[in-house]
Design goal:
By secondary structure, the chain is mostly helical. It has one domain. The chain is 74% helix and 4% strand. The chain is built from eleven helices and two strands; from the N terminus they run ααααααααββααα. The protein has a two-stranded antiparallel ribbon with strand order 1-2.
């Protein structure tokens, strides 16, 4: 039987790191966001926009998609650099490095400036930054609504329309940091090259967001249990995917199946919902 331990362990570490980093910058983030919170209608609009954007990204030419992604991620890096340093002239350095590495690595073909390892690093960084920025805008109630709606949209875009898979393929061809690729361990065959498993940036954000909200609402112990649940669920689903040779599959479904039971049990044993 084929299975993989790399991605579930990575998912656990990513969620754990997101919580720890959020704790460190929580006060600064609250000041920047001015205690704003999403309402249910905001979440519905957000999920709808995300679903439509996937379809649009499938149709957008690769070069235009590259420019959009580079700009969006550069702004994200600038924002968080400014939160940390408070100086705009220092905050422009990280996004400038990111764009230059991509430009010279991809368009000039310099492999040591842009390769799979560097792509993974930036994808992980962006997943954490998005989780930090949006995490504070969600409440426990809006998180639950967001999780259900996003999972439904993901199932549609992956299994029915196939748009998610096409966007992922386009991102890989353009070498954009929209996915994390890790080697499958243990390997299928010791004599062959290591096979890789990919997980999208949206799935990483989704796992981080659910874990972060469990921490904010139910405490660190509950958050840790939810992370363990997510990792176990992902391991189980991934084992099925590997053994039955299934291609693209909704990562959100794999994640929410591990988080939801823990969240429900801990919520029932804890205080009433805060709205």
């Amino acid at each position: 039987m084929q299975f993989d331990i790399t991605m579930p362990i990575f998912l656990f570490l990513l969620c754990f790191a997101s919580i720890k980093i959020y704790k460190k910058f929580e006060d600064k983030l609250k000041q920047i966001l001015e205690e704003k919170e999403f309402q249910i209608k905001d979440v519905i609009v957000l999920v709808a926009v995300m679903g439509v954007m996937i379809s649009i990204m499938m149709l957008v030419p690769s070069l235009a998609l590259t420019v959009i992604i580079l700009f969006a991620f550069s702004m994200l890096m600038f924002t968080f650099s400014f939160i940390v340093t408070g100086k705009w002239y220092v905050s422009v350095i990280p996004p400038a490095i990111f764009v230059l590495l991509y430009y010279f690595g991809v368009f000039w073909g310099i492999p040591y400036l842009w390769n799979l390892y560097i792509i993974d690093v930036f994808a992980i960084l962006f997943a954490i930054l998005i989780t930090m920025y949006l995490g504070g805008l969600f409440t426990w109630k809006t998180t639950a609504v967001f999780a259900v709606l996003l999972t439904a949209v993901d199932i549609i875009q992956v299994l029915l329309t196939g748009h998610m898979g096409e966007v992922a393929s386009k991102a890989v061809q353009s070498e954009l940091p929209l996915l994390v690729f890790l080697p499958i361990l243990p390997p299928y065959n010791a004599e062959q090259e290591l096979a890789m498993m990919g997980l999208g940036l949206g799935d990483l954000f989704f796992a981080g967001l659910l874990s972060l909200q469990a921490f904010r609402e139910l405490g660190e112990d509950a958050a840790l249990l939810s992370i363990v649940g997510i990792s176990i669920s992902f391991f189980a689903f991934e084992t099925l995917l590997l053994n039955y040779k299934i291609g693209f599959f909704p990562g959100t479904l794999m994640i929410i199946c591990g988080w939801l039971p823990v969240a429900i049990i801990k919520q029932l044993r804890s205080k009433p919902l805060k709205y």
